[in-house]
Amino acid sequence: MADRGCALEAVPLPAEVRESLAELELELSEGDITQKGYEKKRAKLLARYIPLIQGVDPSLQAENRIPGPSQTTAAAPKQQKPRPTNSRDERFRSDVHTEAVQAALAKYKERKMPMPSKRRSVLVHSSVETYTPPDTSSASEDEGSLRRPGRLTSTPLQSHSNVEPWLDRVIQGSSTSSSASSTSSHPGGRPAAAPSAAAATLTGPVAHAHIGVPVNSRVSSKIQQLLNTLKRPKRPPLKEFFVDDFEELLEVQQPDPNQPKPEGSQTAVLKGEPLAVGTAWPPSLLAALQRWGTTQPKAPCLTALDTAGKAIYTLTYGKLWSRSLKLAYTLLNKLTSKNEPLLKPGDRVALVFPNSDPVMFMVGFYGCLLAELVPVPIEVPLTRKDAGSQQVGFLLGSCGVALALTTDACQKGLPKAQTGEVAAFKGWPPLAWLVIDGKHLTKPPKDWHPPARDAGAGTAYIEYKTSKEGSTVGVTVSHASLLAQCRALTQACGYSEAETLTNVLDFKRDAGLWHGVLTSVMNRMHVVSIPYALMKVNPLSWIQKVCLYKARAALVKSRDMHWSLLAQRGQRDVSLSSLRMLIVADGANPWSISSCDAFLNVFQSRGLKPEVICPCASSPEALTVAIRRPPDLGGPPPRKAVLSMSGLSFGVIRVDTEEKLSVLTVQDVGQVLPGADVCVVKVEGTPYLCKTDEVGEICVNSSATGTAYYGLLGITKSVFETVPVTAGGAPVSDRPFTRTGLLGFIGPDNLVFVVGKLDGLMVVGVRRHNADDIVATALAVEPMKFVYRGRIAVFSVTVLHDDRIVLVAEQRPDASEEDSFQWMSRVLQAIDSIHQVGVYCLALVPANTLPKAPLGGIHISETKQRFLEGMLHPCNVLMCPHTCVTNLPKPRQKQPEVGPASMIVGNLVAGKRIAQASGRELAHLEDSDQARKFLFLPDVLQWRAHTTPDHPLFLLLNAKGTVTSTATCVQLHKRAERVAAALMEKARLSVGDHVALVYPPGVDLIAAFYGCLYCGCVPVTVRPPHPQNLATTLPTVKMIVEVSKSACVLTTQAIMRLLKSKDAAAAVDVRTWPTILDTDDIPKKKVASIFRPPSPDLLAYLDFSVSTTGILAGVKMSHAATSALCRSIKLQCELYPSRQIAICLDPYCGLGFALWCLCSVYSGHQSVLVPPLELESNVSLWLSAVSQYKARVTFCSYSVMEMCTKGLGAQTGVLRTKGVNLSCVRTCMVVAEERPRIALTQSFSKLFKDLGLPARAVSTTFGCRVNVAICLQPNRLGKLAEQGTAGPDPTTVYVDMRALRHDRVRLVERGSPHSLPLTESGKILPGVKVIIAHTETKGPLGDSHLGEIWVSSPHNATGYYTVYGEEALHADHFSARLSFGDTQTIWARTGYLGFLRRTELTDASGERHDALYVVGSLDETLELRGMRYHPIDIETSVVRAHRSIAECAVFTWTNLLVVVVELDGLEQDALDLVALVTNVVLEEHHLVVGVVVIVDPGVIPINSRGEKQRMHLRDGFLADQLDPIYVAYNM
């Protein structure tokens, strides 16, 4: 192609051919012509000039695009239809870039990514207004969001006479680079559509069964896809280094030794030409105004246009002078407050004028200057909560602004308060509003003259600037700087008297103000101001006005050139021949070059001279930094540089030679302004001068820059100004330089090149990327199909100590789910290829929903704020933490274990005791006579029925709080006898048979239990199935009945009907039920003799429960263990027949069952039974019962406590008026088999303190399968404490969460980072001994070491009856022995991790108190990256991440962490959670979330104890049964 390139260069194409080519390009870009038609026409046009092009070489196709449906329909171009002007979706196609992107994507064709799944209802996400007026938007704060640079856009055949040979070679050669991916035409005639990069949705089952997944599951196949994408090695592995146990050092990215380093010599300070001396400059701007106003009063100064493009008013210099004088007089003399003048010279005044009213703005501005007041121009606030409006308020407050000037029309449109005054805006100081239309002003007397007017160091005006973080600061510009800026611009642009300038920019700030309001007055120029609203209706308006007024200069932005290109068809009569300067204000943007080139291509035939285009660079602090000058003003020829993107990311300038894909083409922004010195300094650290091939920040020293940030001395010293130094450390000047915030370098001919802005800089790892460049790459991926008007925002957020790139785009209203996902994956690939950087999060939002900046751009900082607060409401999200986060700590390598003997010796040497603890000795506590008498519970019941027959044992309450059934000792005895008789006669059971009791919570259940014991049968309590949810609850019932080998089912009539119903038959096989007896109407019969067990070790009952990990386990309880359990609880809680206790627990297993069915019979106290289900219809039932029965002791579960906290939070007042008083409670115990939930117990205590609940009443308990009651914490208040039966209060310690992951306990101070509060689980019961053993070696551990809790006690269960699940794992749970030390004692392993710690407190016997801390269940822990995580810790972090996360559960699946969150909010907002969840887990746990599943409230299954059933959830997820709102697969 090189030689062909030369051949082409030789034939300069005539202007009309160039124009036709440009039109063709546009037609293709707009989809008005197919790719094939385009190629045909193009070949035809060029045939005369290049004979060779007849067989079109694919590498010459300007761009290979995957044709959209519109492009394959017709071969002939469609009928020209008038295009709506909002078609700016397709930005200027920079071929090099688009081509590079296409080539990059071609490399990725084979990679598939799983597509997120979304519930249908979420898809109906209509945009705020699907149809809006043309554009109101763009990619970065400064509205320019045009497409990205590259080669000359419209046709690659233009000669670049002015380009250096090396640049020329690179620019020419780049078109071949992507010929590999070009869509060569098939014989069939349509270009080959490349298979989509990522949107293959799965059809049919995917057979990936080898990981043990259900093969037909849609979810699992997606996960499989995700795993496959993750298996591919992404980046070279990082250097690994030793990680200290505790300080998990984050991986520090080592600099790559091969990375490019600057090699040039040190740059020097570049001096601009001196300001011309001979010219008679006016002494100040106001002097110029006075001169023109009095000598040339009829000369036009400013013409304002309406939205139809008609001139509505021309302000003459005479009028400007007289009206400004009037305003100055009024401001100084007519405004008073408390008889004092409201304003004195030097005060700040806000100017609030719409973009359509430049005339009033100009009068306001000059009126303030004449009165020696400081104008602060700001945007018109449209609503009370505009994006960034609060920050503007902060600026006004800090400037001490008390008065705002505005126009009549504008004032009428402002939001009003009830009083009719202008509403107070959020964050704004109180303002007085002054309307400055003529009739409100007073004519000054003849002898009045405005105050002195010399160009001194005093502040002239304040221009606002919004920083990357969104804070707004004011840049002060002095009178002297103002004059110097006007002089420098006059000289640089060669402005002369009475010239006409058309201005499209915002006249309130930046170039629009400097050229169109200030410099123009100095030179008596005529400015034609074109409002933004007119540009939206007619993008050609500025060109028409140039034509009409024969303007010599025009001031535009890239986007204005771009819009006019899209609208220029059919406009044959415009001519730009009058222009001598077309100033491109955002010429420093990476995409402005393609707009300039394209514009020149089309308009050169209409009189536009190539040398007229003058890009310039400016910044709020330094004002104009550089501007390209036409040759007649002594400017050198323009240049371009094609730079390697990879080099730029290391801050080095490298001309791109081999890559050709990732290049940035930049144009110069001309020379330094006259009278200015410029240098380039290092971006970070000391401001050393850069080397010649190094990118740095451009700094300016000149009398024409801003002077400070208003009122912010510190930031002015540190950020606004800097003193550049040479390599030797010597300052280059005695005056500080002003930092511009522009990144760039000085090229040949002393031309300034800008490659980015400091505000858009993102430092990822060691490389720097520019937000604008990434926007441009994203825009090169089929934007017209997809991005709504090219609105894309890119910013970085800090997660885990590094910048992470976030890209947010507005999606077109008609884009389908599939399209959007495909587009997202392609954007990721393009950015990865071209910038070699991963995007952390890509979010799509509905059209028109991103916050807008004043002139329609995207308000970046506000967008970032919404993203971080979870208020962005995207409709699609793709997170890629796996590829981006490369600085995670190294996975932990397990060290070889220290042997148990060494462990003990180590502890002894360190002076640490072995961790063991025990409750009080049983022998000392009561006569063994009673213990023998109470050995069998049936005997106790008979004895009570005989001695205290009418003593009430049980009261059952319903939801209304009324007693529905009671049982005295004798009543219970008689009912039990009847059940026993029925079992023997009707069911013909023999001794030792198992009987399933399927009852709702109540007295029937208790009677049936004792009935079984009376006839020697073994009862198994089973929760009845839920009638509304048979499909999931009935199989569990059936399973327990089968696994327990029950010979008979006892139940009520209603449940019996349910078990045999049609619905039940759908869920289980109803024919295989054993005998079912209902006990509702059994005859009154006595049994001949009540069964007495021959030995206390005989099985009394079976306790079945499903663990949180989904294992169904039944444990055997002997008669001896049963009575020992009751005895321990009686002693610990001091239960006597005179006591009343309230129980709100499920009566089916564990301690709940024991308290409900066993303890009252043993101790004789009265139990008030509150079924937890009843709380669903009356939340206050339990607390009302406690208050009504004055219960000293009450038991509940965490789920009950949570219901009360959530449901009664706002109702404590109502309860108090109903007489609920909890001061009777001595102790309220939460029955649990988990780590104490401190936050819940504390909020419960705080909340109900108002109802008299004593501060220390709430305490926790701990039990598990092998021993249902290990700790109970009865509280000590009042007399009991004096009697000495008390123990110390529960203690709380703070442990380091990172150490826990390494199985270590490290105590830290409260509030220290990574601290986790743990509270002891309760006082160990009498007769119970606890020891901490090593999970692997089974050796004893020392005090405060984390290990498995082992327990030995007379009430340990005697073994598993059956474990339905993994039998082998549980063989030694009941008969474990230590491997060293006391090897004789037989212990039961609880399966829970915890530690013992001796506290400073003493218990009743005077011994130091040993506190037991439970950390969590071993079965539940997640092994990730070599560390042990407890799900609850991750879940706590996640729930804190956003207010609409109601609940959360985590589990792992094939090494992926899956987080399920319940959304308590609108479905549309579901996707906000994805990024927040991923962030918080990364930050706090150093884990990458693999899948985020968002579900409805109540989907996470919770068992009766309030524990999350994570394994059930996992099964539901894999079987695709959760009906999720959204599933995000993080890449």
Describe the structure.
The chain is α/β, with parallel strands linked by helices and 1531 residues long. It is built from 45 helices and 62 strands. The protein has a 9-stranded mixed sheet, with helices on both faces. Strands 36-35-44-43-45-46-47 form a 7-stranded mixed sheet, sandwiched between helices. Strands 2, 22, 23, 25, 26 and 27 form a 6-stranded antiparallel sheet that branches. A hairpin with a 5-residue loop joins strand 35 and strand 36. The longest helix is centred in the middle third of the chain and has 19 residues, at 817-835.
Straight-line N-to-C gap: 40 Å
Task: Tell the overall outline.
Answer: elongated
Strand order of the largest sheet: 4-3-14-13-15-16-17-18-21
**Fraction of residues in helices?**
25-40%
Radius of gyration: 41 Å
Structural class of the helices, strands and pairings?
alpha/beta
Strand content: 15-25%
Number of alpha- plus pi-helical segments: 45
Question: Which sheet architecture does the biggest sheet show?
Answer: 9 strands, mixed
How would you state the average pLDDT, rounded? 82
Please report the total strand number as a whole number: 62
The low-pLDDT segments are 1-10, 51-93, 124-216, 233-248, 1277-1286
Question: Which key phrases capture this entry?
Answer:
seven-stranded mixed β-sheet; alpha/beta; disordered N terminus; 1531 residues; nine-stranded mixed β-sheet; 45 helices; 30% helix
